[in-house]
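Notebook, p. 212. Picked up where the previous page left off. The plan for this session was modest: take the two constructs that came back from the sequencing core last week, fold each one, and keep the raw output in the notebook itself so nobody has to go hunting through shared drives later. Recording the first one now, exactly as returned: residue sequence, then the structure token string.
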Amino acid sequence: MNLVQKGAEADIYVTTWNGRNSILKIRKKKDYRIHSLDTRIRTLRTIREAKMISETKSFGITTPLVYFVDEKKCEIYLQLIKGKLVRDLPLNKIIKTCKEIGKIVGTLHKNGVMHGDLTTSNFILSKQGLVMLDFGLSQKTDKIDDYAIDLRLFKEVLNSAHAQIVDDAWISFIQGYEKILGTVLTEKILSQVSVIEKRGRYANVV
């Protein structure tokens, strides 16, 4: 079992499950929380994540298969997806792929799901196409503000990790997003993104 990512919420390992290459996600204990509360939070989030991954498949979005959920240990065994993170693609390929990411995110929002951690590291370009990862912060919602938070985060990621192409990549993303949600709803959500950005600027000044 090899550790491939150490995160604030969970650690990610490459391992096997029933002879299959697998990703193991282990939600870590938080010592600052009361033990019983910590256990409950980690258990509920583990169960919710597995459900959200499976539910997202019903929208036509490609996600890893969930092999097994160990509620007591707060662990999820997932299909290991071979491919390249969108983050690591050539710049022109990232711009092009952002349109497909926009369609995927639009489909999520159309079906009342906020991803909560939209980054170019949470998409893998595989032989099967674009695969969406990490639903640890996802939730069901019908709030425009939540969808705007998703978009604002992705825009921030483009600005910080892909500054050379941020404008073209963002336009490409919105083109894909609008294709799924339509112009009126997209403009409403983008308007809320602007509101969130202004809040941030004001907070920085203060």
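Okay, moving on. Second construct, recorded in the same format:
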Amino acid sequence: MPNGSSSRRGSQRTAAPTPYPQSVQRAIDELAAMPGIGRRTAERLAFYLLKGKPEVAQSLASAIGEMRTKASPCTICGNLADEPLCRVCRAAVPLPGGEAPARDASVVLVVEQPRDLFAIEASGAFKGVYHVLMGRLSPLEGVGPGDINIADLLARVDDPKRNAGGLPVREVILGLNPTLEGDATGLYLAEELGKRGVSVSRLARGLPSGGQIDWASKAVLEDAIEGRRGF
């Protein structure tokens, strides 16, 4: 019978040697760690960057570095911006000479992530401003009201100076994903906003339950915004 030490040695697994140089393997590992990118896709991307013109890899590295140093949350709504205010909030600021701004800052559409904002913007159906929560309530995952951008939303409602253009907020539209967590977040916000006397509505259920806003078509988003109703 094999002794205990040889049995233990036989049960230990050793990692398969990689056929790639260490530098290439590291690039593949980093790419494969990204959401939605599997090992084979990571290998294709790594070899595309390796075999292509040096300028391609350098341009990508430069773009990533610039994004990391310049992109930050908008000081009003939390959307991604290269300046203190994002382009949507800037468009809600009154123009010199009394000309009306392009966006109505009194109507705030709340979304979970910047990608939801971009999807709605692509529809061209909404002319108000946004508030990005950067998440949603999820007690099972330990995500509470203090972990997402709720306090700044309530501050915008409480103090018009915190809102784009210094306008009071008259309506908050809840544009959260129609999931269990999204509905729970909406209920919490509706309760808090109701205490402040602001009108609260939500996107119409043209959005499929369990779906994602950034997957919806332009027509579905237009219907959802036009058909919103009180919460």
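Notes on construct two before I forget. The radius of gyration is 24 Å.
Flagging for discussion at group meeting.
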